[in-house]
Amino acid sequence: MDWVRSALWPIVGGVFILGVWELWIEIADVQAFLLPAPSAIWSALGDELTTIRGAAGTTFRSAVTGLLVGAGAGFLVALLASRFSRLGDGLTPLAVVAASTPIVVLAPISNIWFGLTTPLAKVVVVAIVTFFPVFVNAARGLRAVSSSDLELMRSYGASRTTSLLRVRIPSSLPMVFVGLRIAASLAMITTIVAEYFGGSRRTLGVYITQKASVVRFDEAWGGIVAACALALMLYGAVLLLERLIAPWYTRRARA
Q1: How far apart are CA 228 and CA 216, in angstroms?
Q2: Hey, how many other C-beta atoms are within 10 angstroms of the C-beta on 84?
Q3: Largest CB tally within 10 Å, which of 46, 105, 149, 193?
Q4: Looking at the predicted structure, is the pLDDT value of residue 252 above 60?
């Protein structure tokens, strides 16, 4: 099967890297505070599984909620920008400014506005960061529709709404999912970084920070492994959604 073949080499590569990592730690006698061995990280992950699982759930909910809000807003604004070109010209620079603002600036401000311990503060930061890639790619996709397709719809007497639903949106889906894949990768990173600036103790960002501050680096790396796993899950969910919504595009891309 295609998905088995596509997953085989990443798995083989990951196992090889972990093996070299473990062997290097053993041969070079690297201290655990510099870099724990994969076996030590796995052991710590098992010991702290209940705590990490609770923290991961809170972090994942914040990341997914922020991604849904940011991506949804980005797509809706892209629809408006494709309909009103002047609006799009005015919003694009503002979106660039928002995307260029560092997370280390957004997170403390969001904590002050919405509360340090509430998930809303993290959701807002994630939504701001994920808005830009979806907006830019969706806007490009909506504008890149073939003029002959639009002329054909007009010759049939189709309304703007019909042309939007039957031509513009389906044609823009490949670009929309490019933006969604980028946004999915950014969502988890942004959530973890935002949590470094404070929040509920049941979050991965706070867990990693606390464990690192008391020199429990194997447990801190266990939290990092959990964050990476969640990021892969979120990215995989976007890929699955793309296969379900735009199967014609994914088949053509593999051909």
Answers
A1: 19
A2: 12
A3: 193
A4: no
Tokens of 138: 């969706």
Q: Which residues of 174-191 are buried (b: 16+ CB within 10 A; e: fewer)?
A: bbbbbbbbbbbbbbbebb
For residue range 114-137, what is the model confidence (pLDDT) as tens digits? Answer: 877 788 889 999 999 999 889 988
**Beta carbons of 133 and 171 less than 8 angstroms apart:** no
pLDDT value at 140 more than 90: no
Place of tokens 């997370």: 103
Domains in the chain: boundaries:
50-254
What DSSP element (H or E) covers 189? Answer: helix 169-196
CATH number of 50-254: 1.10.3720.10
Reported as a single tens digit per residue, the pLDDT across 232-249 is: 899 989 988 888 887 766
State the Cα–Cα distance between residues 33 and 189, nearest whole angstrom: 23
